[in-house]
Amino acid sequence: MNTSMNPSSRPQSTNHNPETCLSLQNVSISYGNGKNVAVNNVFMEIPKGKVTAFIGPSGCGKSTVLRALNRMNDLIEGCGLKGRVLFDGQDLYDKRVDPVEVRRRIGMVFQKPNPFPKSIYENIAFGARINGYQGDMDELVESSLRKAALWDEAKDKLKESGFSLSGGQQQRLCIARTIAVEPEVILMDEPCSALDPISTLKIEETMHELKKTFTIVIVTHNMQQATRVSDLTGFFNVTDLVDYEGKVGCLEEFGETERIFNSPAQQATQDYVSGRFG
Amino acid sequence: MNGYQRFFHGSTKVCIDVGALPMSLDTKADLFRLRLRPWTEKITDQSFRLLATVLASLVGLILAAILLTVLAGSRTAMATFGLGFLTTSNWNPVTNEYGAFTAIYGTLATSLLSLLIAVPLGVGTAIFLTENFIPSKARQIIGMMVELLAAIPSVVLGLWAIFVMEPFLRPLLNSLHATLGWLPFFSTEPEGPGIAPAILILVVMILPIITAIARDSLSQVPTELRQAAYGIGTSRWGAIFQVILPAAISGIAGGVMLSLGRAMGETMAVTMIIGNSNNFSLSLLAPGNTIASMLANQFGEADGSQVSSLMYAAFVLMLLTLVVNVLAQWVVRRLSLRYT
Q: How many domains in chain B?
């Protein structure tokens, strides 16, 4: 399975940044105990302190790859991973690695805003407390909300339920909650797909602030969003394998966002970013 | 405009006078009139509605009738013993002196203690069956077995309890008496049937109820909430106890209250194993009585004021379960307000 790839889809890493944060080395992910291959032979070097966007048509495995970066796929029964995912040189799938610690260092913001059914304050304090935060909780809540650009809107109702916020505010609350446990990387799985354009804009502004302190990886269906927020873009596509029935995702091309959108090396990338398919 | 015309069209604000249906179709209102249904269909609808109303109100009527007749039956005993009936434990058909304290104590002790054992077991099983600790195939099999446990007739459980479970547990109960005998609750020597075996058989009976309901409420906790918990580096313990359980707590509390009602009213298995003694003893190892088992045992040869006293006891049992139900709804509402 691993050796039967269409040669034209070999990923072309053009990233020469020495400061690699996450490194995917020949990663293949399958569901249903190996029956359904979701994504095949991904090589990728995600640099520190940058925003990396994953784009591609539905079913190309970009969310699957994203969730592999903090072992979220462990929660899905029958999901398996081959290859290596290195975080600062450490294999995340090593037997001695605690997935709970992986998720603390590599936080995640989900597609649908999912605050806890607790107060706004507790939503942020909860994760910090669970991870043994010793400092001033009020201060942490304020600074996290400020970083997520929600402080002004939420400061007067910290004791109210997280659900009393609007959808976009809830998503920023989820970002604040993720920041509060002080991860090194933030993964975002289509964070704006359930939001209106104004909320989307606010989240994107937040991301520009966040990338000063965090490495961000974002999956998006919105190509304008990828051009607006990301420094690098990986285009995922679906291909046929020689000895495998059905479509399989793969990394078609990966490089600086500007190059991917203006002068991509692959025809498929050109077709996708210009809106000819997908 | 007749009655069922108003019923069918009143809500849509299209009022139609059938008697004066115009021949010309020049307005929108006329167009709506074209689809008036034939009278047979309306009669069917109307009579079904009537039938459903009657049957539905019958439920309330039956409940009220049972309450009233039981209350009426217990009037003599209420007049004779008053509230003292609830606090005395003298039950003597020869001298016609009756007090239900033994049975009330037995009812409360068996139901509450069985709940105390069954809730952690049941909720624990439910957590085990919903959070993927083991492959889903194995979970399904265990889940099915839990449901089958609920299907065992209580008389079979009673039989099993008296011939298998109680002799098997006797050494354990003996050692309880030997080590904790200084406590009033273990102060008598176990001699076969008693409150403790009754509690254990009740645990077997209510465990599947608690497990099934808790499992349903836990599996209804949205996946997003689980992911949110794990996504910020919560351990499995943390996710279960601080996020998933609180989110499911209202459903679980409902199940617990339901099984408390079941435990209080359970008759057959308890009658077979509790010993049916009206001599009051605090000890759980001694034979005792519950209201339900006392009723089942004595209705056959009772007459006169004994029947009235049994009715009084039955009324107390109904009140107890009613209180439990009201309490349950209050608890569920309080908890669901906090977490949803």
A: 2
Q: What is the SS3 assignment for A119? A: strand
Residue B55 lies inside a defined structural domain of this protein: no
Share of chain A above pLDDT 70, in %: 92
Cα(A48)–Cα(B272) distance, rounded to whole angstroms? 72
Identify the CA nearest to B264 among candidates B312, B309, B321, B315.
B321
CATH number of the domain within which B304 lies = 1.10.3720.10
Q: Does B242 touch chain A (CB under 8 A)?
A: yes
Q: Which of residues 111-140 of A touch B (CB under 8 A)?
A: 112, 114-117, 126-127, 130-131
Contact A177 B232 (CB under 8 A): yes
Residue B337 has a pLDDT of 61
Are residues B308 and B190 both part of a single domain?
Answer: yes
Interval A182-209 mean pLDDT: 89
Note whether B231 and B317 are within 8 A (CB): no
- The answer to whether residues B102 and B239 belong to one domain is yes
pLDDT at B338: 60
Angle at A210 between CA A207 and CA A215, to 5 degrees: 100
Write down the domain spans for chain A: 20-114+185-273
pLDDT score recorded for residue B26: 67
Q: Tokens 């209201």 sit at which residue?
A: B291
Same domain for B18 and B79, yes or no, is no
Quick check: is B89 in a domain? yes
pLDDT of residue B23: 54
List the single residue in B222, B231, B243 with the smallest CB-CB distance to A103.
Answer: B231
The pLDDT, as a whole number, for residue B280 is: 87
The answer to whether residues B184 and B283 belong to one domain is yes
Say how far apart CA B21 and CA B84 lie, in whole Å. Answer: 73
Structure tokens at B240: 């279960």
A103 has a chain B CB within 8 A of its CB: yes
CB contact under 8 A, A117 and B224: no
> Is B234's CB within 8 Å of A108's CB?
no
pLDDT for position B21? 52
Give the structural domain span for B210.
75-335
Distance CA A146, CA A126 (A): 17
Which listed CATH number (3.40.50.2300, 3.40.50.300, 3.40.50.620, 3.30.360.10) goes with A20-114+185-273? 3.40.50.300
Q: Is residue B228 part of a domain?
A: yes
Which stretches in chain B have pLDDT values below 70?
Answer: 1-26, 336-340
